[in-house]
Specification:
single chain; 155 residues; Umud Fragment, subunit A; ten-stranded mixed beta sheet; 12 strands; 0% helix; globular
């Protein structure tokens, strides 16, 4: 038995998605899968060639995808192995979930907060501490626009 691909629809003004929407090939577009991002301790930036198909409604003009490695964002429903859809941006507002490069070499996925003393990269996992840095030590690479998760519904 084969199930048609579906995606979870987020309902306005509700904290979690409430319904599944059918998805067919016409609804999908390819975006480049550029590598991995740490959701935990920052890792060296790496680039992998490849692509991933995502729902068209997740794609903006400068969109790419990264595979998540780690568990620092689990309270935002971003888990190890997920693929996140990123809109390339150079800045983020307080509380936005961003991909950030630290000291031109390591990348991480965290909520970004600008404070008087610098920048706080806040994990969405109570078991992990925030990372405090100077503004000059970070570069915002993009903001999370969506999450793609493959599940095994047949199991």
């Amino acid at each position: 038995m084969s199930l048609a691909p579906q995606y979870l629809l987020r309902q306005p003004n509700l904290p979690i998605a409430e319904s599944w929407a059918p998805l067919d090939d016409r609804d999908l577009v390819e975006v480049p899968l550029l590598g991995s991002v740490a959701a935990g301790v920052p890792i060296d930036a790496c680039i992998d060639a490849g692509s991933v198909e995502v729902p068209r409604r997740m794609v903006k003009r400068n969109t790419y995808a990264l595979r998540v490695r780690g568990n620092s964002m689990i309270d935002c429903n971003i888990f190890d192995g997920d693929v996140i859809i990123i809109e390339r941006r150079e800045s983020a507002e307080n509380g936005e979930t961003a991909v950030v490069m630290i000291n031109d070499q390591e990348v991480t996925l965290k909520k970004l907060y600008i404070e008087k003393s610098g920048v706080r990269l806040q994990p969405a996992n109570e078991a992990m501490p925030p990372i405090h840095l100077k503004n000059s030590d970070i570069q915002v690479l993009g903001l999370v626009m969506g999450v793609v998760r493959q599940t095994d519904l047949a199991a």
